[in-house]
Design brief:
By secondary structure, the chain is mostly helical. The protein contains five helices and no strands. The longest helix is centred in the first third of the chain and has 28 residues.
């Protein structure tokens, strides 16, 4: 627990519980929402090869997960933690331009 607290710069065990809960809820929700999204755009196991379907399913899960992580973080009162987490993750993946774009867009309003 001490490692989580130091690594994530958090102060109490309740915050760790909430953060882990948000990760769990987000993962399940992203997996559940990705299938209807694929169906909505006309991709199913019956119309496409299973490997293509699985590849597209995984590719859809990623942005859905990222979005839901911040949304659920906000709903559970941990927006700042998850926003910082997303910034670090996207920068590590060389996708930091997304955060830069969103922050510039937010600053213009």
């Amino acid at each position: 627990m001490r490692n989580f607290k130091q690594r994530w710069n958090i102060t109490n065990n309740w915050q760790i519980f909430v953060i882990l809960l948000v990760f769990a809820i987000t993962g399940s929700s992203a997996a559940m929402l990705s299938k209807p999204i694929l169906n909505w755009i006309g991709i199913s196991k019956e119309t496409h090869h299973i490997l293509l379907y699985l590849l597209l399913y995984i590719l859809i899960i990623f942005p859905v997960y990222q979005l839901l992580l911040v949304v659920f973080g906000f709903l559970f009162g941990q927006f700042q933690f998850f926003y910082s987490f997303e910034k670090k993750l996207l920068n590590a993946m060389k996708l930091g331009f997304i955060i830069t774009f969103l922050e510039k867009k937010k600053g213009t309003k």
